[in-house]
């Protein structure tokens, strides 16, 4: 069909709108990709094409190849006519121009600047324009980050000294701090001028990170001004440590860390609800402790000096009960645990509580003991009571507090108070934090996945829309092609075919003229042999035998490595070295065999193969360096640790363990991001601890190892507090170093440790558990999905087998593809006789918990059709097995039937359960200290009675169900074996108790002699 383009009656083909986005590399070059937002700001491709298309002359037609290559747009598309390559080149140039314009638009700042800032600087002000250009430059941000890092290094290099002492290095760092403060102040001012202060939606203080920077800068300027005006005032430069949070502005742009941060931020509201619940529980228990134990932890043991008459406190005081000996319930200082009591029994428990005047010691008291942990652990007021309860909830040192209270008040109610506190507060309430974080992390990850899928789907839809538009444009242009163009293309095609045929003929003549050489003839045979060998090696490597051989070698290697010990004999060390050579050789042979069978490229495409290669190379390097003595012994010890990596080879053969390792590796991205966040958190609190407690942990009696006297020691101390190990002792030292309970500063510093423990241990460290739980849940879901798919395939296969059997099965059927089970079915069906109904077995349908499988495949010899309720009725009574019991009692034996009825009677189980409960209560009533008292003798009689009852129970069940040799026997269940073990142990204990030791040995000797005489092959020659 041929029509003139200039004909006004014919509609002109219009190119489609510009592509919004090309997300497929095969459809458009990478440099031509655009976004939908940018495409809206620039002229469309159709407009550009209408401006740049050459004007068509009269009589000139547009013709395009009927089969164009539409999978990729290029400047010279294959198969297009010579007269129309300019059309596609113009289209590509238009798209290139649009892409360049989009890149220019993306390079411009996206945030709209306010027209006026600080009520004086407009958008056209030259100074503000210069500042905007400076702030938006990448080097400016890099300089600020380097300054932040340098400031952190300067803060870490500071060496705190007690009593505000300093050295030259600290003085230099303090002067350098002025420079840092000036740089950050300048940055703050420049950003305020560029973005505005607070009124505009995009102003400086409308961003969280900018608010944090502004507060830090203001605090820094305030501290400098305060130091200048009042040199001896308190230095608050510890707030500058929060400047290390600034790099989070860039790190939060990473997808993995963004998921972690968003999870923590979104979890703040649920965590606030949990915090209110925790505070409520702490407050309730603090009030109860205030009512019950107020003033009870100040009593201590005093000894009266005969020379002076004064009362001297013990060297290591502990709480005691200061009541009258007649009312004494706790610990009463009766010379216990004190060496001086052996020579002097004049000890008295004394505290400041009101007591009977006759009981109060009249001579003077040299000192009053404040209580355990310098008086911090007590219930004297609501603040200290809440702090003590919080310490107990963290489960660090709670037993010491419980025993302090027990010694001072008695054991009646103290254990109930603290046990209920641990169960309710620690086991229940605080673990809700993990649940909230795990749930929020799962939601955030799912949201990120859905967001990524949505973006991919949107890009795909945009590309398909643009692709369909261009296809419609090309197909419309095809309708306008003329016959002349087709004839020209046909001629070009014929010429190309003729030229190709001539080239093929010439190549064939050349090949026939050259005969294959000897190497070419033999290389073919070698290649065939090589392929067969690699195929055989591949089958060998993937065989079940190779699997178990590698597993055995790994466990043997593990046993050899575990056999090492200090000061071992030389022969054992020689054996271990030779075994190491053997294992290295075997694992090297395995690696080379896999490389040959799979190919080097395929071998390295698997992660576990890379791991095996690293282990083998490390082992060979260790052997070479050990034999040549090129490195010292410490280096050899480090290299020998690579042997331990061989143990992890078992992960590739253990499916569940491999899935677990894969889940952990898949979560490494989020874990690494969380580690960065955790490290910044530790650095912040370490620097803050240096400012608060640096040089202060110097006590008269001791200097604790956990201190804040240097940056590295502060890091270690903060990490110790995060793990919860002995964090309360560090808090006690911090409170005492800041003035103790008599100073307000000493009370306030306790919030540092509480906040550090809550934010670090209960939030950040629990995020690790949330990530692990989320990934393990994904592994479980994947495993369940695979199991469901496998079950579905099995069901379909079983349905296919049963269908084929139904179609081809009959009396004369002799072969069934369903296996032995199907053959048995057909044999039953093919028998001539009465019709039979079969109860469905466990493989065709899932059983419930109460259903049993003992009656599977049991024919019901009845012609009457049965109801489904009769066929599938739950059977609570286990039937008597068909096999004989003790090889003499058949299933119809009257005594066996009687035992079976007794065992399945409703009263029998109730009686046994009651005996178990009563026996357990009597075991708990025994007194282990004085085992020969009358109560224990009576309980032993009852123990003998209950042992007899349980023995009779086992005998009845063994008689009814058999021992072990058939299905449904008594010993085929694990709980029955446990019952038998308990009964036999009780019988043996009674025998050892009532029979003398010599008689036992005589009985054992007679028994062994009888066994030896009964079995002929045990006789010695």
From TrEMBL:
Residue ranges the record marks as coiled coil: none
Function summary: Voltage-sensitive calcium channels (VSCC) mediate the entry of calcium ions into excitable cells and are also involved in a variety of calcium-dependent processes, including muscle contraction, hormone or neurotransmitter release, gene expression, cell motility, cell division and cell death.
Name of the featured protein: Voltage-dependent L-type calcium channel subunit alpha
Domain of life: Eukaryota
Entry membrane topology: Multi-pass membrane protein
Record bears the keyword Ion transport: yes
Keyword check for Ion transport: yes
Matching Gene3D superfamilies: 1.10.287.70, 6.10.250.2500, Voltage-gated potassium channels. Chain C
Source organism of this protein record: Macrostomum lignano
Ion transport domain: residues covered: 138-448, 545-781, 905-996
